[in-house]
UniProtKB/TrEMBL annotation:
Keyword Heme annotated: yes
Domain called Cytochrome c: residue spans: 207-328
Pfam families, sorted: CCP_MauG (PF03150)
A GO CC term assigned to this protein in UniProt: periplasmic space
Cofactor binding note from Swiss-Prot or TrEMBL: Binds 2 heme groups.
Organism whose genome encodes this protein: Methylobacterium dankookense
Function of the protein: Involved in methylamine metabolism. Essential for the maturation of the beta subunit of MADH, presumably via a step in the biosynthesis of tryptophan tryptophylquinone (TTQ), the cofactor of MADH.
Record-given protein name: Methylamine utilization protein MauG
Record's keyword terms, sorted: Electron transport, Heme, Iron, Metal-binding, Oxidoreductase, Periplasm, Peroxidase, Signal, Transport
Lineage per the UniProt record: Bacteria, Pseudomonadati, Pseudomonadota, Alphaproteobacteria, Hyphomicrobiales
Free-text description of this protein's post-translational modifications in UniProt: Binds 2 heme groups per subunit.
Pathway(s) served: One-carbon metabolism; methylamine degradation
Length: 347
């Protein structure tokens, strides 16, 4: 079966003049940095949950179907909206009761490359472990595991879909999780102007953005955490934000001072479409994010050693902003999901 919201086209990666060249000073450093942002050759799938188109299609149906909420009024797509860069455009996720949940909805873009634990505080060991967190949460979808399994097993169409996706067709929580995770690994960012520049098109981004790229990887040190093609190191850092008592990963790792107030590094893909920002949605613009990093955030013992006051000039802040905007494909671009094929798809 071939189904897609939008195909994330592969980017041809040839950086003109890099291989075997003897570029001087800053030009050589920029060329080296550019090499670190190559589009990966394939979407990674774990050995214990390999890709299949039937499993991905089942996961797609489950993702958009409100059958997994107690009142059949919410789905995964309620908070992870394709047209909002797979987030929800709110400072904090909306609760089932109409109020705010505790945290900002993270984007699912490129979640397949998010190594290590998931969730702002890392409470989910793998992507497969995530779905039933919101499904059973009273403030979110509010459905019990037993009822979720019963509902799906009672529908002939779902029974047939599970039979196509798994050798054993019995509906179980692990199979629901495996199907949803398989679909979510196909949520891949659409190539942005930045990617065209990495591929060798020097006119794809303005000169200000190129200077911002140099700052991002150099003096501003943003790439220490927002690294590589997915713009995330998959780790947890206290960046000096948040005063509401939420200590993030420190709840799970109470003996680690470095993880107190530490939250997972989000991707920066399509970042211009995803405000508000931070784990608590406390910053409403990219300008405010840059200002936070410029002043170094809250100075406390757990603050990451990578975070320090930068004393950026107004021009440097403008250059960084110009660069960040090149990571967004554009508002007219279809939401990105790799095409369902019989063999594992590519980005």
């Amino acid at each position: 079966m071939a189904w897609k919201i939008g195909t994330a086209a592969a980017v041809t990666l040839v950086i003109a003049g890099v291989a075997g060249s003897a570029l001087p000073g800053p030009a050589a450093q920029r060329a080296e940095w550019r090499e670190g942002y190559r589009t990966p050759a394939a979407i990674p799938f774990p050995e214990d949950n390999p890709y299949s188109s039937a499993k991905a299609e089942l996961g797609r149906r489950l993702f958009f179907d409100p059958v997994l909420s107690v009142d059949r009024d919410r789905s995964c797509a309620t908070c992870h909206v394709p047209d909002l860069a797979w987030a929800d455009g709110r400072p904090r996720a909306q609760s089932k009761q109409g109020g705010d949940l505790d945290l900002h909805t993270p984007s699912l873009l490129n979640v397949a490359w998010q190594d290590g634990p998931l969730g702002w505080d890392g409470k989910f060991r793998t992507l497969e472990a995530v779905p039933f967190g919101p499904i059973i949460a009273p403030g979110n979808m509010g459905l019990s595991e037993a009822e979720a399994v019963r509902r799906l097993a009672a529908e002939p169409d779902y029974r047939a879909a599970f039979a196509a996706a798994f050798p054993d067709p019995t509906v179980t929580r692990p199979r629901i999780e495996a199907a949803l995770a398989t679909f979510q690994r196909l949520i891949v960012s659409t190539p942005a102007p930045f990617d065209r520049w990495i591929a060798g098109n020097e006119g794809a981004i303005p000169e200000a953005a190129k200077r911002g790229f140099d700052l991002f990887n150099g003096r501003a040190n943003c790439a220490a955490c927002h690294s590589g093609w997915s713009f995330s190191d998959g780790s947890f850092h206290d960046i000096g934000v948040g005063r509401d008592g939420d200590i993030g990963r420190g709840r799970l790792k109470p003996n680690s001072l470095a993880l107190r107030y530490a939250f997972k590094t989000p991707t920066l893909r399509d970042v211009a479409q995803r405000g508000s920002y931070m784990h608590d949605g406390s910053l409403t613009s990219l300008e405010a994010v840059i200002d936070l990093y410029d002043r170094g955030g809250i100075d406390r013992p757990s603050r990451s050693r990578e975070i320090r006051p930068l004393t950026l000039s107004a021009g440097e802040k403008a250059d960084l902003l110009a660069f960040l905007r090149t990571l967004t494909a554009g508002p007219s671009t279809a939401p990105a999901v790799a095409e369902l094929t019989e063999t594992p798809p590519t980005p």
